[in-house]
Amino acid sequence: MYEYVGAIHMHSKFSDGSGDAKKIAETANEVGLDYIILTDHNTLRALHEGYEKWYDNTLMLVGCELNDKVNKNHYLAMNIEDTLSTRQSAKEYVKKVKEAGGIGFIAHPHEERNSMKEHPPYPWIDWDAGDFTGLEIWNHMSEWMEGLTEQNKYNHFVHPLRSVEAPPEKTLVKWDELNRNRKVVGIGGIDAHAHKVNVLGFLEVEIFPYKVLFKSVRTHILTTNKIRGKNVTVQESKKLIYESLEYGRCFVANSYHGNAKGFKFFGIFGKKIFQMGDVIREKGNINLKVTLPNKNGQIKLIHNGEIISSIESNEGDFIVSKSGQYRVEVYLNGYAWIFSNHIRIEN
Ligand SMILES: [Zn+2]
Ligand SMILES: [Zn+2]
Q1: pLDDT at 120
Q2: Which of 319, 250, 323, 248 is nearest to 288 (CA)?
Q3: Which of 39, 77, 236, 278 is paired with 310 by a 20 to 30 Å CA distance?
Q4: Residues lining ligand 1 (ion), CB within 5 A?
């Protein structure tokens, strides 16, 4: 397996972001990201105008963020060729994205901020919407805005990364609950706009420049083949990235607390190895292993939404046999750092 690190969910001038698509991709390349997924609101202009390509070592893919007619139920649609009308229900666009061969992730499912009138919350309401691929379990901008108060405004603007601590508990609970019935993949999003905001009445500040956000919530994917190489086409790389996201062979990490590259969570049964996203249908003891990249952290093993083990170490070794969904959370000095996707045991 090859590991690649990327950022998902950002807006350019093609919708309400302040950056040029090309410039955003070049910035991601400077930061060292392998891929980014641009998701402008209800438009695929960047795709149709040829921006989906490599920018040195960064591949920019283009999806879009759909919403319904009351601007709720934001849905990150990827791997589709044409955008969909906003005059339909979430259920309809979830279905249509899938029919078009695409994948889709519910954006900021439990957004509930109330600090800025001009930026109301856009939560997901329609939980019966059917076959969505997954959830954005951690959205940098949502969390940042939820924590914003009149008192901490200044600090919040100056330290946009420090004020992001953990995915919403509600979202994690919902994620585990949904996984009891079927695979629902978790991804991370930054929701970068680089909005220019007037903070103190006279001072215009760019909140969340793309460069800063590229150092926060990242989605690491594991692929079966290399996405970069002389004979690898953009279409092939794109397929590999979307396959990993759809399958759940990925994890979410806040790189502000430490580079998570090299994190591993896998299962062993006899000579067989199972990755995140896999289903293990073996009877007997399964060895679940965790490896952290050069750091000690608090490793929590979660089974069907309950913490069943918690250790401070740079690796974890757990023997399990019960069926259900297993995932791992890692904390570094009390800060949420890594969230794996589930490995399922169905025996
Ligand atoms: Zn949104
Ligand atoms: Zn957005």
Answers
A1: 81
A2: 319
A3: 278
A4: 74, 107
Centroid of ligand 1 to alpha carbon of 262 (angstroms): 30
Rounded to the nearest whole angstrom, what is the distance from the C-alpha of residue 72 to the centroid of ligand 1? 8
pLDDT at 23 > cutoff 90:
yes
CA-CA-CA-CA dihedral for 55, 58, 62, 64, to nearest 10: -130
Banded pLDDT at 113 (limits 50, 70, 90): confident
**Dist CA 306 CA 300 (whole Å):** 10
Closest-approaching ligand to the CA atom of 75: 1
Distance of CA 204 to the CA centre of its chain: 29
Q: Check residue 194 and give its pLDDT.
A: 78
Rounded to the nearest whole angstrom, what is the distance from the C-alpha of residue 313 to the centroid of ligand 2?
36
For residues 2-28, average pLDDT: 96
120-138 confidence digits (pLDDT tens): 888 999 999 999 999 999 9
Length of the chain, in residues: 347
State residue 170's pLDDT score.
Answer: 95
**How far is the CA of 279 from the CAs of 248, 262, 300, in angstroms?**
11, 22, 20
Beta-strand relationship, 324-332 and 335-340: antiparallel
Separation of 84 CA from ligand 2 center, angstroms?
16
Helices (H), the chain: 21-31, 45-48, 90-99, 140-146, 153-158, 169-179, 210-213, 234-247
Q: What whole-number distance in Å separates Cα of residue 63 and Cα of residue 180? A: 28
Rg, the chain, Cα only: 19
Q: What is the pLDDT of residues 255-279, one digit of tens each?
A: 998 999 999 999 999 999 999 999 9
CB 9 within 8 A of CB 107: yes
Place of tokens 């919350």: 121
Q: Is 320 helix (H, G, I), strand (E, B) or coil?
A: strand
Q: How far is the CA of 74 from the centre of ligand 1 (A)?
A: 5
As a whole number of angstroms, the distance between CA 141 and CA 189 comes to 8
Start-to-end Cα distance in the chain: 26
